[in-house]
Amino acid sequence: MKIGVPKEIKNNESRVGMTPAGVFELTKNNHIVFIQSTAGEGSGFFDEDYQSVGGIILKTMEEVYSLADMIVKVKEPVEYEYPLIKPNQIIFTYFHFASSEELTFAMLNSKAVCIAYETVEDAEGTLPLLTPMSEVAGRMAIQQGAKYLEKPIKGRGVLLGGVPGVPPGKVLVLGAGVVGVQAAKMAAGLGAHVTVLDTNLKRLRYVNDIMPSHVVTEFSSEYNIRKHIKDHDLIVGGVLIKGSKAPKLITKEMLKEMRPGTVIVDVAVDQGGCFETTVPTTHENPTYIIDDVIHYCVTNMPGAVPYTSTMALTNVTLPYVLQLANFGWEEACQKDLSLQKGLNIVQGKCVYREIIEAFEWSEKLVP
C-alpha cells in the first residue's frame, strides 16, 4: 500500500503522524511511504532520517494526498486539506467529529474512509490510541495551570506546592480517567492538595489506592462541584464520553463563585469542552479571561511537546497502520474489532452512533 504522511498545518502543531522507526517497519513490509518535506522537523525528525529507512520525500502536501492510498496524520484535516482527500482514501487520525459539524460534513462529502484514533476501543473497553495523548495532556494541564496561576499572567499568585509555613495550592480534577489520574499525579508531585471528582466509584477507588494521602476523592455531583470551585486555585476538566460531546459541568454563572485569578484548564476541549464558557484556543493565544477566571482551552496540548508526543503516538498507532496497510481497511476491520470501532465515516455515510446523536440527526436523515 502507498501511505502518505503530510505535514500538520493546524496552528502550532509540531507533531507528525509517523516517526522514522514507524516508516522503517512499513517499508520492511514492502509498503511505500511518502513523507512531505520537513513534516517531522518540529518533532526532531529530518528528511534524511526518513530517507535512510526507505521513506520517499515529496515537496508538497498535494503530492502526498494524490499518491497515497492511506493518510496517517495526527490532527483532523483542516479546510485547506478537504479538497485534497480522495474517495475511498483511508484517513487515519484524531478526528473528534462530535465537536465540528463542518468537519463531519466535509469528510462525508469526500467519500473517504475515516478511522478515528479516539474511538478505537480494545476488548477491555479502553481507548489505546487516545491513552498516550491523554497522559501527555493530563500532565501538561498541571504544568500549564501552575504557570497561569502566576500573578503577572493575571493568576491568583499561588505556588501550587506552597512553602514551609504557607499552605499549598488546591487543585480540583473533574474526571478520574487517564487525564484525571495523570493530572492528579503531577499536582500531587508538586505538593498541591488535590481533589478528584467522578461518578465512577471503581475509578475513585483506584485513585484512592494509588495516590498519596493529600489526594482525596469525592463523588461528582453539581453540589460537590459548586462547593469545591469556591476555594480551589486550579480546576482541570478531564471528562470523556467516548465519541460524543463532553457534558458541561461548569456553567457560566458558576464562574462568579470562583475567586479572581482561578485557572481552569479544559482538556476535554476536543470533544466540545466540559465548561460552558470553553472556546477552543491555540498555543499562540492559549488563554482568555471571563469573570476574572483564566481559561486555558488549547485543542492540541500535546503539540507543545512534539518529540515526546510523536514517539508515544507512533508506539500505539503503528500496529494498526500495519494491519490497514497489509490487509486493506475492510479485511483489517473484520479481523480486529477494536479497529472496526474506529470507523466513523465510510464512503459518504456516518457509521458511528455517537456522532449521529451529537448532532441530533434523525436516523433517516443521516447523510
From TrEMBL:
Domain of life: Bacteria
Alanine dehydrogenase/pyridine nucleotide transhydrogenase NAD(H)-binding domain mapped to chain residues: 149-297
Coiled coil location: none
Keywords annotated in UniProt: NAD, Nucleotide-binding, Oxidoreductase
GO cellular component terms attached to this protein's record: plasma membrane
Name of this chain's protein: Alanine dehydrogenase
MF term (GO), any: nucleotide binding
